[in-house]
Amino acid sequence: MHETVVCVATSERTWRTLGRYCFNAPFIANRQKFDLAIGFNGNDPEGRRYLDTLTPEYVLMRPNTGHDLANFDNILKNIPGYHHYILLHDDHWFYDDMWFERLEQLHGSSPEVGVFGNLARFDLSGDFKEYHDRVCSSMGYTEVIGRPYPHFVQGLAGSYTGPVIRAILEQDGIPHVHRSVQAAAQVFERVFSGLMLNQGVRFGQIPPGFEMYLVHRDHSFVKIKLQQAAHHIAGGNRESAEEIFLMLHRLRPDDPTVTIRIDAVRSGQADPARNPVEA
Hints:
Elements: E1 4-11, H1 17-20, H2 25-29, E2 35-41, H3 45-52, E3 58-62, H4 67-76, E4 84-89, E5 92-94, H5 99-109, E6 113-121, H6 126-139, E7 151-161, H7 162-170, H8 182-198, E8 202-205, E9 214-216, H9 221-234, H10 238-251, H11 256-266
Parallel strand pairs: 1-2, 1-4, 2-3, 6-8
Antiparallel strand pairs: 4-7, 5-9, 6-7
Helix pairs in contact: 6-8, 9-10, 9-11, 10-11
């Protein structure tokens, strides 16, 4: 048993995403450094066989309801205690082979921080605020209504200390509903963060920025890296641009869309002035 457990939430509809994102080469390279707990919403024999190739210490099957919050809640309540927890969705990934050591170093250098993740602005307004407050009131989470929180942990994905997870479990786990209602899941990821902030838990953004290290699909990383490469080319530094292209090819070796985008930047068809990013 290792000191760290990586908890991955997937489902019968999304498990194929694991091979493209979460279980990439940097993840596999570090597999012997942690225990692996996979929560599987639903029942798919082919998906289960795929999970076995990662030799997880725990596979927790449950009905496909409640989205990933219910999945994480089920994982945490059914595995033993650990010193360190890393929570990931099946479409989160790290590009750096040293990601595991880097997270350890972050916690070691900032022991006051209980959670490192992608921090999103706590955005409540209009109809969504009304829905949020109504759900919180009906579910008994009135202590988070009207509080001016600065941020929340996107999707709960990130790196947690053991005391934070124990505090979560002492509050009956991760708030969720037993139905697959996306709006409710968006409410409860904010409720979860609010409850932790109320207890004085400190949150930290994994450097260098939002979705730039703990990456969510390709929402930011590929786009920004290609923009950086375009800036290098515009400045006459093709060597640095090619280093970026090589890294992206290694990450997405069988992705024709990324190859097309790289070729467009390399040939000068992409205009960096339209998407300015610091080099």
